[in-house]
Amino acid sequence: MKIKKIFPMVSLLSASLLYAGGGFAINKNIQIADSNDQIMSDADYKKSLAEQENLIKNYGAAETFIQDGVKYSYYPNLKISFNKKESHEDKEIKKVLTTQSFKIYEVNTQMQSQGNNTSLQKKPAVIYNTSSKKFAAFSGKIIVQMKEGKTFSDSNFVISKSYPQMNYVILNKPENKTIGESINSLKANRDIDKVIVEILENLQEPM
After folding, report:
1. What range does the domain containing 11 cover?
2. Any domain includes 175
3. How many CA atoms lie within 13 Å of 99's alpha carbon, on the beta-carbon side?
């Protein structure tokens, strides 16, 4: 069996919204790998998944949350990069995993508190799907579907994109709230019909 690398895509919902709005949802810092580097062997794929599972045991999750019946763990100090070429700044950061599809770096709390402005700070944080045993990435966005005729109004959240004709709003996760707190706060809003944490999955997929 051969394994095809699937580049990180936003959820189907967000992708369709952004297509309709003429936008582009994938993180601007993500660069797509060369088209001639798409296939990995079955052995390499299995090795990659084993490395991911072993790595995650060495780090404590900041939080866990459930979406659509799936339990996810969130690791804000681990950043995922899909760039084949590292910047000079990135090379100075501790790299904890390299696969054919992506690299993972450790950005410690001290670096973040000092405002270390590396390109890695802007990259997606690692999410671990405890069901599939695979890494995913958190875009930092939360999608909400508004009830018919309602508009979003909550000063605790910053709107990234708004599609009033489709009743959808894409929000930035607040820095002072966990993912779980953000979900609970939004679900308590009677004007909101559905809350979706935008998770980029299927970073590696069998053909």
Report:
1. 2-138+201-206
2. no
3. 31
